[in-house]
Design brief:
Length: 71
Protein backbone atom coordinates (compact mmCIF):
# COMPACT_ATOMS: atom_id res chain seq x y z
CA UNK A 1 0.00 0.00 0.00
CA UNK A 2 1.20 3.48 -0.82
CA UNK A 3 2.37 5.44 2.28
CA UNK A 4 0.92 8.63 0.78
CA UNK A 5 -2.61 7.37 1.40
CA UNK A 6 -2.02 6.80 5.10
CA UNK A 7 -0.17 10.09 5.50
CA UNK A 8 -2.89 11.99 3.69
CA UNK A 9 -5.58 10.36 5.77
CA UNK A 10 -3.75 11.13 9.02
CA UNK A 11 -3.16 14.75 8.04
CA UNK A 12 -6.80 15.10 6.97
CA UNK A 13 -7.98 13.86 10.35
CA UNK A 14 -5.59 16.22 12.15
CA UNK A 15 -6.73 19.17 10.03
CA UNK A 16 -10.36 18.31 10.64
CA UNK A 17 -9.70 18.15 14.38
CA UNK A 18 -7.95 21.52 14.39
CA UNK A 19 -10.76 23.19 12.49
CA UNK A 20 -13.37 21.55 14.74
CA UNK A 21 -11.62 22.80 17.90
CA UNK A 22 -11.84 26.35 16.55
CA UNK A 23 -15.37 26.23 15.17
CA UNK A 24 -17.29 24.19 17.73
CA UNK A 25 -16.77 26.48 20.78
CA UNK A 26 -18.18 29.40 18.80
CA UNK A 27 -21.19 27.36 17.75
CA UNK A 28 -21.88 26.29 21.32
CA UNK A 29 -22.12 29.93 22.47
CA UNK A 30 -24.28 31.00 19.52
CA UNK A 31 -27.49 32.73 20.55
CA UNK A 32 -30.08 34.39 18.39
CA UNK A 33 -31.00 37.98 19.00
CA UNK A 34 -33.71 40.01 17.36
CA UNK A 35 -32.55 42.85 15.14
CA UNK A 36 -33.94 46.31 15.87
CA UNK A 37 -37.03 47.26 13.90
CA UNK A 38 -35.09 50.00 12.08
CA UNK A 39 -32.40 47.56 10.91
CA UNK A 40 -32.40 47.22 7.13
CA UNK A 41 -34.99 49.96 6.68
CA UNK A 42 -34.23 51.56 3.28
CA UNK A 43 -34.66 55.06 4.65
CA UNK A 44 -32.15 54.47 7.44
CA UNK A 45 -29.68 52.77 5.11
CA UNK A 46 -29.89 55.66 2.64
CA UNK A 47 -29.50 58.25 5.37
CA UNK A 48 -26.49 56.39 6.75
CA UNK A 49 -24.82 56.06 3.34
CA UNK A 50 -25.38 59.66 2.28
CA UNK A 51 -24.30 61.20 5.58
CA UNK A 52 -21.36 59.05 6.69
CA UNK A 53 -20.05 57.54 3.45
CA UNK A 54 -20.75 60.03 0.66
CA UNK A 55 -17.26 60.02 -0.90
CA UNK A 56 -16.75 56.21 -0.88
CA UNK A 57 -20.30 55.66 -2.12
CA UNK A 58 -19.80 58.02 -5.05
CA UNK A 59 -16.35 56.58 -5.82
CA UNK A 60 -17.77 53.07 -6.03
CA UNK A 61 -20.64 54.25 -8.21
CA UNK A 62 -18.20 55.91 -10.63
CA UNK A 63 -16.02 52.78 -10.73
CA UNK A 64 -19.04 50.61 -11.46
CA UNK A 65 -20.17 52.97 -14.19
CA UNK A 66 -16.72 52.94 -15.79
CA UNK A 67 -16.72 49.13 -15.62
CA UNK A 68 -20.12 48.85 -17.27
CA UNK A 69 -19.27 51.34 -20.02
CA UNK A 70 -15.86 49.77 -20.58
CA UNK A 71 -17.23 46.28 -20.99
Amino acid sequence: QDPKVGTGLALGVVLFGLVATQVLPGLMKFTTTRAPDTYGNPKNVGTFLFTNFVIPFEAVSVLLLVGVVGS
